[in-house]
Amino acid sequence: MMTTLHSRIASTTASASLRRTLLGGAAIAAFAAMPQAALAQDADGDAMEEAIDGDDQFGERVILVQARRQTETLQEVPVTVTAIGGDTLEKFSVDNVADVTSRVPTLNVQVGGSGSGGQLSLRGVGSSNISAAFDSAVAFDFDGVQVSTMRLVQPGFFDVAQIDVLKGPQSLFFGKSATAGVFSLRSADPTPNWEIGGRASYELEEKGYLVGGYISGPITDTLGIRLAAQWNDIEEFAVLQDGTPAVNQERGLSDLIARLTLDFDDGDRFRANLKVQYSKNENDGAIGTAEIGCGPNGLADPVFLLGGGLVIPGGHDCNVTDQRYFLPDAAPQLAPGVPTPSEAAGRNGVPFGETEIWFGRLLWELDLSDSLTLTSTTGLLDMEAVDFDCYSYVGVFPGGIPGGAGCSDPINALEQFTQEVRLTSDLDGAFNFMLGAFYEDRTIIFDTAQQGVNISFLGADPITGFTYDWDKIQTTKTEAVSFFGSVIIDVTEDLELSGGVRWTDENKVSFIEVPYLHLFLQGPGFVSPGFFSGPINFSDSNWSPEATLKYRVADDINVYASFKTGFKSGGIDNSALPSNSLSVAALSGDFGSLIFDSEEAIGGEIGFKSQFADRTFTFNATAYYYVFTDLQVQNFNATTIQFVTSNAGELTTKGVDVEWNWRTPLEGLTLSGAVSYLDAQYTDTFLQPGGAGGTIDLDGRRASQSPEWSGNFAADWTIPLNDNFEFLLSGNAAYNDGYITDEATLNDFVQPSFWTLDGSIAIGDPDGAWRLSLIGVNLTDEIWVITSGGRPFLAPPGNLNGLPAGDDLVLTQNRGRQVFVEASFRF
Predict the structure, then answer these.
(1) Domain limits at 665?
(2) Phi and psi at residue 416, to the nearest 5°
(3) Nearest alpha-carbon partner for 508 in 545, 475, 553
(4) What are phi and psi of 64, to 5 degrees?
(5) pTM of the model
(6) How many domains are there within the chain?
(7) Left, alpha or beta for 7 (phi > 0: left; psi -120 to 50: alpha)?
């Protein structure tokens, strides 16, 4: 029998008065001017239009960035930035954050998973992809709004004007969640003239279809519009190993993204830009591309359950490079009963995932005078995501019966409101300033039904019929306020001193309830059904100063030195299970074990940016040194089946980044490249309780996802054939010399060095009216490991069954080779 115990997503309360006031003020200021409306790009749009269409006196396309929340040229701004234009993204059919790594050394990306939905790391510093409670150490800035969920990157992106990757702490201008850097994505804005464009492609390896397009132009002299949409359907995102007991032998996925942009300029003092985006991602399971490595014992370890009372053969092979995944459906004993309401009910244990996200951003600028501009950025995000998968990863009963265990049905909901206001000066003298304030109100609901014990192999709950061990709901509310100020002082004509400070105050409160616990588990070692924690509070505040000295050696040579700090608030972990850490906390009434501390960074960098030979050759380099204290880390202990959340004592990163670009004398040929040297290691006591042999100290060990050497070399050649045709050749080779993939022991899995190769051949109209392309991504079909961790439900050492200690590893990997046939047009 199935009964509904509760509503699995609780309703959120009304916004605070401050939120209402800020939102109301933003809306009134924006729409009061609408009746006079006029088309022009906003500040972002102007920058991008100039970057794309404007040339300097030498005929070079000027790259503009907003690394200090104002438009500056890439060569003038004293920040380490890698800028990737929309044309480059289209040329290689890049529509996913993970695909950007081949252009940005030391950037590491994982997309997928049932926790945060992804992970970004830069220079060896990132945040766990397991827990949705962690903010990303690499801030994801989408059209000027800091997004607190990596699930927004799952559907990918499209119709992009530019991607900027800012390296190193960026807390002064980007605030929270920017201790390691910023991944900034700016979508395209309305065009000054009517334009229609589109593209369609077919990918041969994964059998993927993509169709997208846009219409853009002026509605009136003062108001422009851009409508864009894209549909992507992939049939064979992950192909299962022969003999896998699963309904879907090919796991597919589909993405729908649609965006409306309205752009307004009154021709005098007021400009506004509104973006509204809807995205939906559907897939055949949350796990994605995860192989199971058989570990040093060389055995396909079985699924070890109920203290050895049930041992299910794994069924997987030990080949981790064949892109064939053994991901069974839920075992029949575990599949039927899901605490309701849930999309997983009635699916009979077949994995799936669905994510829907609404995103809105309103940016407006008002010139208070000829020298003062007030800027407001309002962001709204509403997300609902549900997925189902089995985290034993393997398991098959005799006769080919599915043996998937450890299944989970997490429902993630997020409501986020952000408001930033900036006052910026443009004075004629040597002194200019920026003053700003930021506010965030966020609610995360993590409602998960889990099988951590898998007790229903002994029988479903006799009262409810549910086959899940428990249902746990954790609601976390965050309110953050920060104020910041910066100044730029022209000490002399060539010497610039800049700096500032941001003060942040962040408060979080979390509530945990366990409305359901399987009858067979009720007793010692578990929380009681109906458990409610009451408020669990966390608060912290921080001052984050920054200072930079820049000197113009010559017209095209700038050198700079920066001192920077970073801050990422701590919080309350939402991964604690009712069977261990949560039950211990509930028994004592002390939930301090669920709280992780704030992360801070301090250090600096020196660099220079230069251009030579009439600006045909660009050469930029940066040397940096940063110390991160209380780095937020989370791992999973596969034997005890518990999440381990901790703060690393200290992580020190130092290295050098170099980028160059050469517009060669050969017409249409441009060569470019980048190389990075990175030394990142733990430099203080880091006791990690996730080690197989108990607690160990990782002091002195290299950080995960931190290759010592990495880089890329790219060539782009446009060959005019006649007035109506041009031929385009592009290629990019990227190198990574390997890295450790986890931080649980002193000898975690090491990904060896690897190369990747991308290429594109196209023919088209010189003005872009049409183009036919053949695009290859990862042409050598190189497979590498992004993260690793112990596979759940391994046999412990010295078990009574006489089995060897399990050491299987879950290895999350990249996608293999992709080959696109693509047609695009624009008129």
Answers:
(1) 35-826
(2) -135, 130
(3) 475
(4) -110, 140
(5) 0.88
(6) 1
(7) beta
